Each structure stands twice: as C-alpha cells, then as structure tokens.
Amino acid sequence: MDDEIAVVKEDVIESMERSAEVYGLSRSAGRVYGVLYFADDPVSIPELVEETGYAKSTISNITRKLTRIGMIHRRSSEGGGRRVRFAPETDLWFVIQDVFTQYVDREMEMTQRTLQQALDDLAERDIDAVEQDRERIAELADTYEQLQTLLSVAMDNSAEDVIAAIEQSDLD
Amino acid sequence: MDDEIAVVKEDVIESMERSAEVYGLSRSAGRVYGVLYFADDPVSIPELVEETGYAKSTISNITRKLTRIGMIHRRSSEGGGRRVRFAPETDLWFVIQDVFTQYVDREMEMTQRTLQQALDDLAERDIDAVEQDRERIAELADTYEQLQTLLSVAMDNSAEDVIAAIEQSDLD
DNA sequence: TTGTTTGTTCGGCTCGTATCGAACAAACGA
DNA sequence: TCGTTTGTTCGATACGAGCCGAACAAACAA
Asked: What kind of fold does domain B2-89 have according to CATH?
C-alpha cells in the first residue's frame, strides 16, 4: 500500500542524491533536501536523524551548509519548543541565482581585479617587450567581462523572463 | 627586467589557480592551463614538468582531465617526434558550453527520466492517496524542464548572441 | 637490435572531508 | 531548582583525491 508510494519517493530522493553530487554537494545533502521536499511540514533535526539514519552531528553540519547556500530555510520560532525546523526552498532558480552570486560572481570580480592590476603593471613598461602578454591578458579580461554581463542579466531576472526575452528574439 | 613580467604573469596564473578551485578543478589544473595560456607554442609534457614543478605522472593526469573537458587540446602529429603537445582553448564560453552539455545536461536528462517514471508509477494508483506527492514531483519536473530550456538556449548559441537577444528586450 | 625519450599506469603517501559518537551548551518543563 | 530535550562543537576514524616516484609500454634513433 503505502509501501509502493515510499518506493517511488525513495527513487526520487536517490535521484536528488545523484544530482547533489554533480553539483558539488554530498549525497547526504541531497537526501536531506529530498526528505524536506516531501515533508508536509518543516522538519526538526531529530526527525531528520530518524528519517535519514545519519548522526545528529552530521545532520547539524548538513543543515548548516544547505542553509548557507539557500537550499533550505530555518523556520525558527514556532508554536512548539525551541526546536529548529527546516523547510526546502522549492524555487531552484532562486537557489541557482544565490549560489552563482555568492561564488561565481565573487570569483569573477576578484579575477577582474587581478587582470586590471596586471594590465596596469605592464602599462608602465616597454611596449614592444610585453605587447603579446598584454594582449593576452586583455583578451582574458574582455572574455570575463562578457561572461559577467551574461551572468548578471541571468542573475537579476526570473527564469521565465530570461526565457521569454530569448524566445521573443530569433535565437531559437 | 624580464623578472617583472614574470611576476605579473605569475599573478595571473595564481588567479587562474583560484578560479580553477571555484569551478571544481584542482589548483594544479589552473596552473597548467595558465602556462599553456601564456605559451607562444604548444607545450609538451616534459616542458610542463619543467615549468610547473609537478611530477610527470601528475601532468599526465591533469592534461587528460583538461583535455576531456575541452579546456586544452592535444596538438598531436607535428614536425617533431612523437611528443604530444598541448594548446589552450581560449574561447571560455565554448568550454562552459562543453562542460554544461557533458555534465549538467546529462544530469537533467537522467533526473527527468526518473521523475517521469515516478509519475507513471503513481498514475496507476488511487488518486487521492498520492495526489500531494504526485503534485510535488510534477512541480519538480516542470522546474527542471524550464531550467533545461534555459540551458539549451544558452548552450546552443554564442555568448554574444545571447547577450544581444537579452539586451534587445527590456530586461536590463 | 638496443638504448633513449616520451607518456601512461600503479602503488603508496598525505591531506582534506564526510561521518560518527561523545562531550558540551542552551533552553525548556517539572 | 534540576533533569530532559535539542543543537553545536570536538576529537577520532574512514574514505577519496592529489601528488609523487617507479615500473611499464610504446615510439623513435642509432
């Protein structure tokens, strides 16, 4: 009876474990997210321990990491005791935007700063001797700027809007 | 003299090491790419050993990995002996497209298959008992389909075209 | 053929990370 | 107040990844 349903959910959760791995998270993180995703209400740490079989400390670490990247949320302060409860962020586009803004955008900013500094350093020197190197660094900076432009547009809009904008053009 | 230039290049290469880490590669991979990026001609494995200080076996593994994901290319068959030489792929957008197509697109296809299978399984059962679970899985499938659409448009066009399409709309 | 150069594979070492259980801290209920 | 529940932090262990040197394989030169 319910068993069949449980099997189907288990399949989906296992799929989430695989996905988590692809995106640089642990399988355990995928499972925790999966349990939250199918839960009717926010889930406490003891309940996650019960449902996943992981140790309390492990769940504590996983929930912290997932909370930090915005994949789950702490639903603190609520009827019951001081139990912390977690709910999943179901808008995956939002999660992606968050992660890219936190890490990729950051990395691009740092890289751009390094490249500009390098160009400044080379600018003070004999042109011919460094021209080829200067050109290469400049190209890299251009490429990065282009990627940054692309990324910031994607990060500042809903997935629907981006799709709509592209489809209304002649790209597809 | 040349030293100053070497320092600037070293800064840029170290930046590439950091970037490589953010994107799930090893620092050593970033360095190898950096050396190739500044080289005037394709570089052999012994030369990479010389320039990076890494062991021959390490360079062998790194070049294989970078070649697989399309960040560098084997320039085999060439004037000299049987030495294999490597050149960098400088079109980073092309690299990104490759990686996303190889891994993310693949993961999304697999997930979609799992989700559809789950929906089929639930379809045979009593509607009311599984309606909420079915709805959740369906939403996940929808989200994934949307992300796939977005991704495939981005992966099938040049960065310039995608940027142009978006800017010609009213998104920015 | 035989020695040399080049590249891959293998075994081992190190280090980081995931995980556990236990100790600790904080908040709640009695 | 004191015990109980909840959550975090702290070593300890285990497993995987990066890296190395050595053994091996393959191609070239003499």
From this structure: Arc Repressor Mutant, subunit A (1.10.10)
